[in-house]
Amino acid sequence: MKFPAFSYACPTSLAEAIELLNDDEDSRPLAGGQSLLPMMALRVAAPRMLVDLGNIEALRQSVVLPDSMRIGAMATHAMNAASFDIWMHFPLMAQALHHVAHQAVRNRGTFGGSIAHADAGAEMPLVVSALDGVLLLDGQSGQRTLPASEFFQGHYTTAIEPGEILTGVEIPFSDMDWAFEELSRRPGDLAIAMVAAGVSVEDGVCSQARLMLGGISDHPIRAVEAETYLIGRELTPNVIRAAAGMSAAGIHARSDTHASADFRLSLATTLMRRALTQLATGAI
Ligand SMILES: Cc1cc2nc3c(=O)[nH]c(=O)nc-3n(C[C@H](O)[C@H](O)[C@H](O)COP(=O)(O)OP(=O)(O)OC[C@H]3O[C@@H](n4cnc5c(N)ncnc54)[C@H](O)[C@@H]3O)c2cc1C
């Protein structure tokens, strides 16, 4: 299909991009274009103006800080998948990046674009939520930060205000071990269901746990009850089965052409059990 008519600007500074976005309320940032351009071609979106962030070099840069890493919004999935720092500090993210689309899409699609787009089946929102990332936003009224738990509000819905740009995400280092599991229809498709599980084990028992589910509902969900259950317990098959069952309990699951809500819930339990079993056996 042909694109609707639109104007295009390619600023070289963040300040200029913010000004352009605020000059026209029907403008949208353009990152890798891997989601926005197909949506425009399908007439699901028709912004009057696209503000391309591709020439703002600062947004592409990532930096390792003493206790965290700040990942630039315009770092592509391919850049992050090849980043030694990400492999070292966030093995969960490195594992999940293998599931993001295909190489051609990973070459253009960006970390920030994926987070701002907030597809319920996308891996990066789950990863950033599991690792307690802090979203860095910049707009006409200045900079602000938001925890991931407040940022993702629903399918394609975030706390970004009109005219704001996501500049990056600061992710604290984690001392937990992590496992990631996903099921999608074909390799590189968005997830039908996925889980991220993190645990620390001290003296044979679980001392820290973080369990997140994605693809099931319209935004990443934390399984707090199952996390609490794991603390102080040995990760035996029975404990893992109980925690996995608890992790999906009470979630209002979504249903679409790919899977029913019931299938997603039982899949989530299976994936969580697999992830926790990997962690318990050290098979990560
Ligand atoms: C065939 C195919 C398969 C795919 N499979 C997967 C998959 O398995 N998993 C997955 O996670 N993704 C998948 N994707 C999506 C891909 O990961 C995209 O990279 C991502 O969704 C959007 O990133 P982008 O950089 O292309 O953003 P764009 O398409 O340019 O933008 C997406 C949206 O985010 C907004 N936006 C972008 N950057 C910013 C910013 N810095 N600040 C504020 N708003 C911003 C835009 O205005 C737009 O509304 C797939 C895409 C395709 C085409």
What distinguishing features does this structure have?
single chain, 284 residues, alpha+beta, Uridine Diphospho-n-acetylenolpyruvylglucosamine Reductase, domain 2, Uridine Diphospho-n-acetylenolpyruvylglucosamine Reductase, domain 3, Enolase-like, domain 1, five-stranded antiparallel sheet, binds flavin-adenine dinucleotide
Helical fraction equals 25-40%
Strand order of the largest sheet: 4-5-10-6-7
Tally of separate domains = 3
**Main β-sheet description:** 5 strands, antiparallel
Give an account of the 3D structure.
The chain has a five-stranded antiparallel β-sheet. The radius of gyration is 19 Å and the shape is globular. With 284 residues, the chain is of the alpha+beta class. β6 and β7 form a beta hairpin. The chain has twelve helices and 14 strands. It has three domains: 46 residues, Uridine Diphospho-n-acetylenolpyruvylglucosamine Reductase, domain 2 (2-Layer Sandwich); 114 residues, Uridine Diphospho-n-acetylenolpyruvylglucosamine Reductase, domain 3 (2-Layer Sandwich), CATH 3.30.465.10; 105 residues, CO dehydrogenase flavoprotein, C-terminal domain (Enolase-like, domain 1, 2-Layer Sandwich). Flavin-adenine dinucleotide binds next to β2, α7, α8 and β10.
